[in-house]
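We now fix the convention by which a protein and its fold are recorded. These numbers are not coordinates but entries in a learned vocabulary of local backbone shapes. A record is reproduced here so that you can trace the correspondence yourselves:
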Amino acid sequence: MTKASLICNKKNNIDLVLEPIKGGDTISTLSIKELIEASEYTSLRISNSNIKNAVAELTDVLKPLQDKKIGRTIRYQVLERIDAKISITIESDEMGATAEITSAQGGKHLSAKAILNAAQEAGVKKGFSKEHLIQLAQLAAKQVPNSQVEMQIASGKIAVNGKDALIKPLVESAQARILKPKKREDGSVDMRDLGDIICVNVGDPIAQKVPLTQGKQGYTVTATLLPPEPGNDVELVAGEGTNISTKNTNILVSEKVGLPKLINNGMEVDEVYKIKNVTVATGNINFTGSVIVDGDVTEGMRVTASGDITVGGFVESATLEAGGDITISGGLIGRKHDIEKKHITNVTMSVNISAKGNIYAKYGQYAQITCHQDVHIENQLLHSSLDISGRLWIGKSEHANGKLIGGYTKAGTSVHAGIIGATAGSNTIINFEHKMLSFKHEIQQLEERLNVMSEKNNELKAAINKLKKLPKEKAKPELLAKIVPTYQFHANQMGELLNEKLALEENLQEYMTSIYIEATEKLYHGVELIVGDYNDRSRREYGPSKMFYRDRKILIDPIVNT
């Protein structure tokens, strides 16, 4: 019978060698494949066409032979060793490169070095991951023959933009000291001890400019450099009572003994008047600069300052007026009023504080508060009347967890507290009218100007029509030439005013939808929100909720913590 064997050739591939003998079992394509499957060459690539050719040629050779006669040897390469192949893909933005390897079929595997070389030939120059190169080479070597495996082998580096310059205070403000009182040795805090360094001396460094950074350059895998955007610069501002240091232009120093205060991009130092308590014995205080009261401001007294007012104790049935901030370590205590029988807006509170800056206090009750910026009450605010242009925040600086109970608040942007209202259903009214009145006033002024301009335009239009109707002998073209441009000028102005009015009306609507009340723990019944001509009140107890205006309605939605 014909003998079949697999023999390695000079190219290290495998030939099928057939030695034809007439008679015996027939050699077929199937028997040759069984021979291959039983051999050590199963991972090599099979040439099915050469197997068929070998079988066909065997048939031709055997046909003329006598029984048991030997024919010429037939030899065909039927198995080929195929080395692993690699394809490199560079992402469209050139920020990554991926290698895809088709695993070897009895041939050579790719080493990490070979993968690196292939990537470099494809144009990848930077950002290689040595770990990924090794990992991919090992993974491809373990794959079944002629299968694909891919992995990202290089990554670009995004440019890191520079940081903006910033102004860093080197001394604590009065507010920082009040909200972070000095600790005693036993761990308790002394709310009346403001410390000894609340005032700065001449030459003390009080603020530092941290310069902008240029950022870090990035690159693509093809080695294209990605330049960073440098940070924005700010100028260190020397406010009143300060100056730029002659030794370091990034340092701001005090020029006098006084109270440091943050301003935009800098600080200023107010002349400071320091007193233990304000009582009948000391009299009222009226000072150009800032005032520090270590203790209390007692009943009936008045403190007026062009700068900040800082009180280490309590303000009880007294009046404070500041051109800057007011910071009170203790609370605001006014005389109790029966505000359920008498509307709170008609009540004159015995404690009255007013600031053009911000107001900080631990708590307040039966207080009149007027503020051009934000009000921060740390614990609770009870039955008080507020007129503030900014935000009302009741609670810790990081979490509004205080109580707002009763009272009438006119706010500018938003109101935040843990609990708003009370189980007794005390009327708690919040009205956002400041900016709305301002918008409406501007709109009204524009309407008045539009009315005046409209009347003027009607007169000019009537004059133009009259001149056009005159017979030729009475025509006045020179007059018409003057009136027409005037009419056109006024018409254009009217168009601009109408656009301005529309923009203001849009801004008013945007403002109305931006203001809100937020109770992070409970919103009780009896809380009323007033937004212009729209108002409504809560009629039951809610969990964490937000009260706001939308589509001509006052709505209450739950706050979902994520």
Observations:
- DSSP finds seven helices and 40 strands in the chain.
